[in-house]
Structure formats: C-alpha cells, structure tokens
C-alpha cells in the first residue's frame, strides 16, 4: 500500500478525528451487546434453543469456552 | 524494519488475497445458511449443517489467521506501522475480534453438525438461523475493515504523533 502522505499527517497534530470517536463509540456498543448476548443467551442457542436427544437442554453461557 | 518495495508488494498481495478470501468464504457460508433455512430437501438441509463445520476449519479459520498475520507483517514492514494510524489500529481490532468470535462459533458449528447427523431429529430442529445471522454480521464487519483499508481515513494515534515528532526532530537535527 502507498506510504503515509507526509503532508496530510502533519494535520493530525490537531487531535482525535471525529470519525475515530464515532467508530470507537459504535465499537464499544457492539462489543457490549455481544457480551450481554453471550452471557444471557449463551453462544449456542438458536431460536428455541438446541436440544440433542439425550443431552441436557440448552447450554450454560460460557461453559464450552473454558 | 521497512520492507523493500518488491517485498512490500508481495506482502500486500498476500494480505489482500487473504482478507478478501475471508470475505468471500463468509459469503459462501451465508449462501449455505440460507440454503439450510429454505431448502425443502431433507438431505440438503442436513448436508449444509454437516458441511459447515469441516468447511469452517478448512477455510474460515485459516483465512482469519492468515489475514491477521499478513496484515501485521504488512503494517510493521511499512512506515504505516501497527499502532500509529487509527485506520490500521481499527482494522487490527476488527480482525482480532472477528477471529475470536469465529473460534467461539466453531463450537456452534460442531453442535449443529451433531444435530444434523442425528436422523431422529426433526428437520425443523435441524434448521438454525444462527449461521445466517452471524454470516451477515461478519460480512458487515469485514466490509468496514475493507473500507478502512481502501480509504485510509486520516488520524494519528497519540503514539503515532509522538513517533512523528521524533522523526521530525531527527530530520531537523540532520
């Protein structure tokens, strides 16, 4: 890829660009949502949950990831 | 260590191939997921969920790690660096996050394959919207990474600004 344009990077002394702040907020929200889903629903639940014949119903969150 | 131009082009080619390959593989998984939800043929539906697990190990996981590795090499071997520019940093975080999610999801693939392999399980219980949901999310996330790679929006991290100041001091001193 082309190397950084030295002229445009001089302008970067002005601080964090707005797109970075917006991106950062969206990323934090996405990660938080993912963590909430992971710990409340567990990673293996489809609609109605998965049940294998003869196995316990559902999966406790995080149990498969130790 | 900055790579010479030819090596840089080779590293870039490897990284683009792996990253776009990863994206393409996810698109195929989305197609399989939709097929699993919509096909009226029992063998097709079971086949989809049986095939997803080995296909993910053979294609998705290697592409994920290859994209991460080649991206890291590409960044460290050029003046972009890995932590100097926000777009590079965000791409790295996206790749790491997507790879972690994929590795966690391999267990889901295993479970879905187990359900599909059981002939006594009703087809309605074999079908699962989860792969479609995750494939769409993965595509969106990797498309964002792709856009960042092409547009390279401006923005130096604090570490990048410090490095830039050091380089300016060195060039002024010379």
Ordered list of secondary-structure elements with their pairings:
The complex is a heterodimer of chains A (66) and B (174).
Chain A: H1 6-10, H2 18-41
Chain B: H1 5-38, H2 42-76, H3 86-117, H4 123-126, H5 130-151, H6 158-173
Helix pairs in contact in B: 1-2, 1-5, 2-3, 3-5
**Greatest chain-chain contact:** A-B, 28 and 35 residues
- Alpha carbon gyration radius of chain A: 22 Å
Strand content of chain B: under 5%
Structural class of chain B: mainly alpha
Report on this structure.
The complex is a heterodimer of chains A (66) and B (174). The longest helix of chain A is centred in the middle third of the chain and has 24 residues, at 18-41. The model of chain A is unreliable at 6-11 and 46-66 (pLDDT under 50). With 66 residues, chain A is mainly alpha-helical. Chain A has 2 helices and no strands. Chain B is mainly α. The A-B interface holds A 1, 3-4, 8-9, 11-13, 16-17, 19-20, 23, 27, 31, 34, 43-48, 50-53, 64-65 and B 12, 74, 78-80, 85-86, 90, 93, 97, 101, 104-105, 107-108, 111-112, 114-115, 118, 120-121, 125, 128-130, 149, 152-156, 160-161, 164.
Descriptive key words:
heterodimer; A: 66 residues; rod-shaped; B: 174 residues; mainly alpha; 82% helix; elongated
Structure described in brief:
The complex is a heterodimer of chains A (66) and B (174). Chain A has 66 residues and is an all-alpha fold.
